[in-house]
Design brief:
The protein is of the alpha+beta class and 278 residues long. The chain has an eight-stranded mixed sheet with strand order 8-9-10-11-12-7-13-14, with helices on both faces. A four-stranded antiparallel sheet has the order 1-4-6-5, covered by helices on one side. The protein has a two-stranded antiparallel sheet with strand order 2-3. The relative contact order is 0.18.
Amino acid sequence: MTAPVRFPRFFVTSPAPCPYLPGRSERKVFTELKGPHADSLNDALGRIGFRRSQTVAYRPSCIDCNACVSVRVVASEFVASGTQKRTLKAHGDLVATVCRPWSTSEQFDLLQRYLSVRHPEGGMTTMDEVDFADMVEHTPVTSYVVEYREPSEDGVKPGRLVGACLTDRQCDGLSMIYSFYDPHHEGRQGLGNYIILDHIRRAHEMGLAYVYLGYWVEGSPRMQYKVRYRPMEKLGRSGWERIASTEQDRLIAAAVSNPRSRDDAAGPKDGMPAIAKG
């Protein structure tokens, strides 16, 4: 006799101020990821626009607003722009290592430096090392941390850690849960872009179709970097659809003409909702 299928239970958060668009409120629907089928559930939910944070999968469920759009890069067809080629060349000496999802003090120190510059007033600035460990280690799915280090001086000891990304391996792609990097390193401009480019390369080499970048919000300057990777798909009412080249040209031009300011860095970064803590 076949065991009955247990569907996940979904919950909705209370409305709260939107961290991306002033004057609006946000609401999320979420469910718990647990048990032996957590990977397959995470895969299925990821394909319909959910994101993972620790043991929770969530997606926006806002009233009268659908500004948050799930986006993913088609890794097998990706073609780097001139700027992206220069970024790849500039950081080509970095040593990337795939590590088990186990937090370190070195990673936490790097995160604190990153948050102090890129998200100085975001909720994550209150995290202590235990909170960071929860963020990295409390995962019921296939996850790892990719560390990016400069070459070591002696070839033995690990080099300087300049970037890291908590990543989920899904059946059809890599989901970038949270990335951070050294914002003070004058010789390492564009590290955030490089980490995305490296994940696109990794997905292609692994035979995975996509790199999931989370939510893109038109009108939110700190989210505009996500539209720079081609080709890109967005999730709409009829499913995933390719963003037309002319439309992506317009979005990229708008992102270039309206660069992110320091004020835009005040809020949180996509991928770490408050519902995951506590």
